[in-house]
């Protein structure tokens, strides 16, 4: 299998990371990571604990500035800032849920709609897409965790992003809920960057997968290529040992 860094992509469309490196003091969290998320594609990032997945996500969201390398959006330099992502057509969900406890489900998603300049009806449509419209008038606190996560996803989707960043969306979910989440992700019209531990979900929804180990890219390919890759098996067995 060949590595396919963003630098060699035949088109500059979409988000691209070029040789990104991040250091926290003496610790190298990311080292030479290149990746492209073309329009409409679902790209997964996996790796053992501490591999740098969340750091990569944080670089794209603008929470962490890369020490080396650069990002581009449609070929133009991108210096992400968390509060400017919506304007760029990028939405995200974070680990956990992060809903406003004092607002109903619908109001939570309306906040997202307003922020993105969408019409109010878009909020109900997003709830329907995520199959949680029946909870529109409930407060999040009383709802099952899986429902709250779907509401958070609806709040991200209401912006009708061109790129959706998902940070461990399967965390805390059961097998059936993860399967439903997979169906939802597969049906999305936007590009998706999925940072996730749950291999079955990643393998079932992603067009391509980047594998990190100790901050370095160790493989990049289709799910079937990744399944057969020895370096990937080594990274995971090493982590389990
Ligand atoms: N703000 C920070 N300051 C110092 N070190 C950090 C910081 N954030 C992450 N790290 C370190 O960087 C490395 C990569 O961490 P990161 O959270 O990106 O990995 P991960 O692949 O998301 O792990 P996990 O699967 O456990 O969430 C780890 O060694 C971590 O301890």
Automatic annotation (TrEMBL):
Q: What SUPFAM superfamilies does this protein's entry cite?
A: P-loop containing nucleoside triphosphate hydrolases
Q: Which GO terms describe its cellular component?
A: plasma membrane
Superkingdom of source: Bacteria
- InterPro entries per record: AAA+_ATPase (IPR003593), ABC_AA/LPS_Transport (IPR051120), ABC_transporter-like_ATP-bd (IPR003439), BCA_ABC_TP_C (IPR032823), P-loop_NTPase (IPR027417)
Please give the Gene Ontology molecular function terms for this protein: ATP binding; ATP hydrolysis activity
- Gene3D superfamilies listed in its UniProt record: P-loop containing nucleotide triphosphate hydrolases
Keyword Electron transport listed? The answer is no
Q: Which Pfam families match?
A: ABC_tran, BCA_ABC_TP_C
Name of protein: Putative ABC transporter ATP-binding protein
- Specify the species: Actinoplanes friuliensis DSM 7358
